Amino acid sequence: MQHLDRQVIEQALTWCQEGKTVWLCTVLATFGSSPRAPGSWMAVDQAGKHIGSLSGGCVEEDFIQRLREGEFDRTITITRYGDSEDAQSAHITLPCGGLLDILIERLPSTSDTREHLTTLLATLDGHYQLIRNVDVSTGTHGFSEDASLGPRVVQQKAQGHDQPTMIQMRIAPARRLIIAGISAISAPCAAFAVTLGFEVIVCDPDEAACADFSVPGVEVKALLPSRYIASGVCHSATAVVALTHDPRIDDLAMIEAVRTPAFYIGVMGSRRTSTARAERLIRSGGLTEAQIDRLHMPIGLALGSKTPAEIALAVMADIVRVQHGKTISELSQ
């Protein structure tokens, strides 16, 4: 299953190519608890069809109803939900009692819009690292290169003004998890990853095992994982994990994965097995010490895991830790 961000932009592009006006809605900021984080998207066409979400459902329903009544015809609108003092949204109470600021862009079906959405899609596929810039006063949008870390949404405000003049949105590749090999841990690991919002691909050369593997939202490929990894599918938001204990699958996957920009590469095994694997990968696989240092082995956080589900939890917890730039020592603080 494709990551939700990619689904939203791909559908918006399809509607645009069909000659439809599209409203692209972005969560700008949340105050208090909120179901969706800043940067989350929803796209709506002129008939009220929508993809993505902004909250638990109430905001989406209200927005679509107001759209059908002729609101949001300006190029740029910023609205707030959950504010009892706002006449437009006072009747909307967010599930967690928070506030939600939404950027609403009316995108007509033009060549500029198609080009813009195409670039967004390519960025989500990992081809670029970009910041999306929206000028609130003029309604124009564009991109600038980005190679830094930071908040997903930044609002620039003029002194003494509540409304932003420029909004910058960091567009990161959609998070992807490649699971090399099918084992007892692969299914719970894939299920956890889907829940966390990852695009998940499971690879194994055993066609029968692939046919029997059934986790909703997971793409299964009956081929050697190393071949898939070598095809250029890994970007900076990709994690690669090998979970089979079979060096014919795990070792080859590691050899290819360290040649990619994947942010997390891990392989299952005891400390003794991991030491032996490191020596083997250097001796037979031609890996360098620096490449070996990129491998998380043994994989996962040391949770005392025993069952497949517990091991899968430890794996995904470690992936999330690395993604957020946390060291092991910081977890105990």
Would you write up a description of this structure?
- With 333 residues, this protein is α/β, with parallel strands linked by helices.
- The protein folds into two domains: 4-171, no CATH class; 176-332, Rossmann fold (3-Layer(aba) Sandwich).
- It has ten helices and 15 strands.
- The strands form three sheets. It has a six-stranded parallel sheet, with helices on both faces.
- A hairpin with a 4-residue loop joins β2 and β3 (50-52).
- The radius of gyration is 22 Å and the shape is elongated.
- The model has no long low-confidence stretch (mean pLDDT 88).
Features:
single chain; 333 residues; alpha/beta; Rossmann fold; 2 domains; six-stranded parallel sheet; five-stranded antiparallel sheet; 15 strands; 32% helix; elongated; XdhC_Rossmann_dom; XdhC family protein; XdhC_CoxI
Give a topology summary.
Elements: H1 4-17, E1 22-31, E2 41-45, E3 50-52, H2 58-68, E4 76-81, E5 99-107, H3 111-124, E6 130-135, E7 141-145, E8 153-157, E9 164-171, E10 176-180, H4 186-195, E11 199-203, H5 207-212, E12 218-221, H6 225-230, E13 238-242, H7 247-257, E14 264-267, H8 271-283, H9 289-293, E15 295-296, H10 308-323
Parallel strand pairs: 10-11, 10-13, 11-12, 13-14, 14-15
Antiparallel strand pairs: 1-2, 1-5, 2-3, 4-5, 6-7, 6-9, 8-9
Helix pairs in contact: 1-3, 4-10
Domain XdhC Rossmann: 177-319
Protein name: XdhC family protein
Domain XdhC- CoxI: 15-69
